[in-house]
Amino acid sequence: MSDRLSAQPERGEEPEHTHVRSGLEEYERSGEGRPPWMLTATELKLLGIAGVGFFLDAYDLFIINPVATMLQYRLYDGKALPANLEGFVKAGANIGSVIGQFLFGYLADSLGRKRVYGKELLLIIVATILCITTPTGRLSPKGSLVYLGVFRILLGVGVGGDYPMSASVSTDRAVLRKRGTMLSYIFANQGWGSFVGSIVTMVVLACYKHVMQEGKTSRVDGVWRIIIGLSLVPAFATLYQRLTLPEARRFEAVRRLDAGDDELARAKKAQLREDAARERAEKGVGVGARAHDEKGTSDGSSEGSSEAPQAGVVHEKREVVGGETPEAVIEAEQGLGAKEMTRRKKAHFREFLSYFAEWRHARILIGTCSCWFFLDIAFYGINLNQNVVLQQIGFDGKTGTPWERLFKIATGNLIITALGFVPGYYATVFTIEWLGRKWIQIQGFLMCALFLAILAGKFTTMGTVPFIVCFALLQFFFNFGANTTTYCYPAEVFPTRFRAFAHGMSAAAGKAGAIITALLFNTLSERIGTPAVLWIFFGCCIAGAVCTLLLPEVRGRDPDVIDAEEIRAASAAARR
User: Per-residue pLDDT tens for 371-398?
Assistant: First the structure.
C-alpha cells in the first residue's frame, strides 16, 4: 500500500486524503435531507440480521433471574439455591462469552466474515436445545445445576462470538455519517430482548397459573424450559440470512492479493474511475456504475477512506440508482499494492501484536478494554442481581403462593426494563451522530456514578417511589451512555484488518468484569453490605470516565484512512 500511495500523483496543494474522500461526497449529500436514524430498506434488513444476537444476549441475561427462582421450587422446594452453584449458572454465559469473543473475533479477521458469520448462531441454537433438555428428574439438584451451567457456557460462546461478528459485519457495510447510529440500533436490541423476556415470562406463567395454583408446583419445570426454548424462534428466523450473507466488498478489498498489477497503474485507474463516477453524479446520471476490470477493483475498507475512493461503483452488474443505498459506498474502488495485500491476507496474530506494540494504537485498545471492563462490573452487578432491587420496590416475591411470587418477580423485571432500559438505548440512537461517542460515554459514566452514590447513601432509608425513579435513571444512563458506546467504539476506532479481533478483545474484557461481579456480588453483599457494593460500582464508573480520556472521538473518523496514512509515513521513513 505504501508504495502505491507514494506513487499516486499529487493534486495540487490539496491533501491527498481530502481529494479521494470526495468520491463519497455525492453519496453523503444524497441523503443529507434525512436524519441518520432514518434507515433504508437495506439497512433495516442488516439490522434484522445482526440485531438478533443482541436480542438473544439480553433475553438470556434477564430470564436467568426468574429461571433461577423457578429452579428453587423445582429442585429445592422453594429454598435458595446453593450460592456457588447459583453464581456458576448465572456466570456461565459470561464465561463462555469471553471464549467466543476471542475466538470468533480472530477468525473473522483471519478467515473472513462470510466463512464465520452464522456459525455463532448455530452454536447458540445447539446450546439452547441442550439447556432445555436438563434432566432435572434424573440428576440430583446439584447435578442439574452443573449440567445447566456447563451448557450455558457453550451458549455464551455463541453469544460472545456475535459481538465481534455483528459489529464488524455492520461496520463493513455502514455509511460513515450513519455508522454510529446503525451500531446503536443493532445494540438497542438488547433492550427489546430484556423487555420481551419479561413479557414472555409473564405470559407463560399465566398459562400455568391454574396448574400451579392447584399445588402442582413441580410443573414450573415446564415453564422455564418454554421460556428458554422460545428464544429459538428468532434464532432460526435469521440463521439462513446469516449463513448466506455475502462478504462485504470493503473487507475483500483489504484482503485482496493482486501481485501481477503495477501499483502506479492501479492508482491511476482507481483515480480515473472515481473522477468519472463523480462527473456522472454531478451531471445527474447518479453514482451507480458498473465495475470493469474486476482484477483491479475492490471497495474501500470504510467510508470516505483516502485509500478507498467511494465512488459507489457496483460490481457484478448491480446498479445503484441515485446513490441512496449503502452499496454505493461498499462497492467502491481501491487499488492496493500486492505487498500490502499479502500482509493483510490473514491478519496474523503476529501482525496484530506488531500493530498494537505502538503506544498510539495500544493506548486506544487499553481504553476500549478498560472502559468496557469497568462498565460491566457495575452494569452486570446490578442486572444479574435484580432481586436486591426488586426487594426494595416490593416485587421480590417474598409472600404469596409460588405462582404469585414468580409472577410478581416477572412484573418487577418488566417495570425496571420499561422505565429506563429501552428508552436509554434510543436516546443514544437519536443523538450519537450529534453529540459524539466520547461525550455520551463520559456523561453516561458520570451520571451512573451520581445515581449509584445516591442509591448507596440512601439505600436503607429511601422510599419506594424515589428508589424506583433513581434506579430507572441509573438504567437510562447506563444505556444512554457507556453500555452502548463501549460496543460502538471498538467497531469504529480500529482499522478493518484488525477490527473484529480488537472488538472481541474489548468485549472479552467487559465480560471478565461481568464474571467477577456475578461471582462476588452475593458474597460481598453478605460480608460488607449492599450499600458498600454499590460504592464499589460508583468507583468503577468514575474509573470508566477517566479511561474514556484515552480514546479519540470517532464521529466522522475513518480508521482505514489513518491506517493507510501511517503505513505510507512508515514506508517513506524507511526509504530515507
Answer: 999 999 999 888 777 777 777 777 777 7
| Nearby residues of 573 by Cβ (< 8 Å), 6 or more positions away | none
Question: CA angle 78-81-87, nearest 5°?
Answer: 150
Give dist(CA 287, CA 314) in Å, integer.
Answer: 9
Query: What would the grid cell of residue 132 be?
Result: 432445555
Cα end-to-end distance, the chain, whole Å: 17
Q: How far is residue 262's CA from residue 435's CA, in Å, rounded to a whole number?
A: 44
Q: Which three cell numbers stand for residue 146?
A: 452443573
CA pair distance 329, 288, nearest whole angstrom: 10
Among positive and negative, which fits the CA dihedral 38, 39, 44, 46?
Answer: negative
Residue 99 burial class via C-beta count within 10 angstroms: exposed 0-12, middle 13-18, buried 19 and up:
middle
Task: Say how far apart CA 181 and CA 188 lie, in whole Å.
Answer: 10
For 331-371, how does the pLDDT look when each residue is reduced to its tens digit (9 = 90+)? Answer: 343 344 444 444 444 446 788 888 899 999 999 999 999 99
Question: CA of 66: how far to CAs of 198, 200, 208, 373, 385, in Å?
Answer: 9, 11, 15, 26, 11
Half-sphere exposure of 435 (CA within 13 A, CB side): 18
CB-based contact 223:204 (threshold 8 Å):
yes
Using CB atoms within 10 Å of the CB of residue 470, give its burial: 0 to 12 exposed, 13 to 18 middle, 19+ buried: middle
DSSP code at position 556: T
Highest averaged pLDDT of the listed ranges 140-154, 296-310, 562-576:
140-154
Q: What residues form DSSP beta bridges with 313?
A: 289
Total-model pTM:
0.77
